[in-house]
Amino acid sequence: MGYEYVFIALMFGLATGIIGRAKGGSFFIWLLVGMVLLLFGLIAVILYRNEVTEPERRCPTCGKILKLYVQVCPRCGTDLYLPDPEETRMPPR
């Protein structure tokens, strides 16, 4: 009786998990999100930010490597401002 919902939930879960894994996330977490939220989970994974290709910079105080969009260093609490372009780098793949 409820097999149709289980099949549809599994298909949405697989699609969400595959897309989530391709963007650098956990397949199983996105699988669960897709199975529970169905279409909303699929939309969420499509809009999910791919942080693997985000530019990085070094904190001037403690030297920790951070993504460019981080505004406060989580290690030392220094306020970070937009650096010069030569101070940023793309992460290695």
Structure commentary:
The chain has about 90 residues and is mainly alpha-helical. It folds into 2 domains: about 5-50, no CATH class; about 50-93, no CATH class. The protein is built from 3 helices and 2 strands; from the N terminus they run H-H-H-E-E. It has helices at about 5-20, 25-35, 40-45, and strands at about 55-60, 65. The longest helix has 20 residues, at about 5-20. The protein is elongated. The mean pLDDT is about 90.
User: Looking across the biggest beta sheet, what order are the strands in?
Assistant: 1-2
Question: What proportion of the residues is helical, as a percent range?
Answer: 40-55%
Q: Spans of 5+ residues with little confidence (pLDDT < 50)? A: none
How many helical elements?
3
Succession of helices and strands: HHHEE
Major pleated sheet? 2 strands, antiparallel
Number of domains: 2
User: What average pLDDT do the residues reach?
Assistant: 89
Classify the secondary structure makeup into a structural class. mainly alpha
Give the radius of gyration.
19 Å
Give the strand content: 5-15%
Overall, the morphology is elongated
**Separation, N- and C-terminal Cα atoms:** 47 Å
Tally the beta strands. 2
